[in-house]
Specification:
alpha+beta; flat
């Protein structure tokens, strides 16, 4: 079986990205001997895409589907001087939206989510 150099390069790139994303969660280190209590606020953002085909819009109506949208996250972690550490994470993402026009009237639909997560990070 023949495998090209591009395939190997793609596999190496995916492995590097996977390790980088695993290490991104553990980059905040708090020395509990020096700090009695501390709060850590992490803010993140990017762009999200909804890759599934949207079949909701009626084909007879003219309109446009938007699948790319900005994504934001906010995480507040509490690092006390003892072992129990906890935090709260939330964010916002807009999966898809579309607008339709029919007989001079406009309509729109937005599918979005706001996750609410309780975190218990380890050291």
């Amino acid at each position: 079986m023949y495998t090209s150099k591009k395939t190997y390069l793609l596999l190496v790139l995916l492995a590097i990205l996977a390790v980088n994303s695993l290490l991104a969660q553990s980059n905040v280190k708090i020395d509990s001997n020096k700090v009695w209590k501390s709060f850590v606020l992490q803010v993140g953002g990017g762009i999200g895409s909804y890759t599934t085909v949207v079949h909701i819009k009626p084909p007879a109506l003219s309109g446009s589907v938007k699948r790319y949208s900005p994504v934001g996250t906010l995480r507040l972690l509490w690092y006390p001087s003892y072992r129990l550490r906890m935090g709260f994470e939330t964010g916002y993402t807009d999966f898809y939206s579309y607008k339709v026009k029919n007989a001079g009237k406009e309509g729109s639909l937005h599918l979005s989510a706001v996750p609410l997560l309780l975190c218990f990070p380890c050291r």
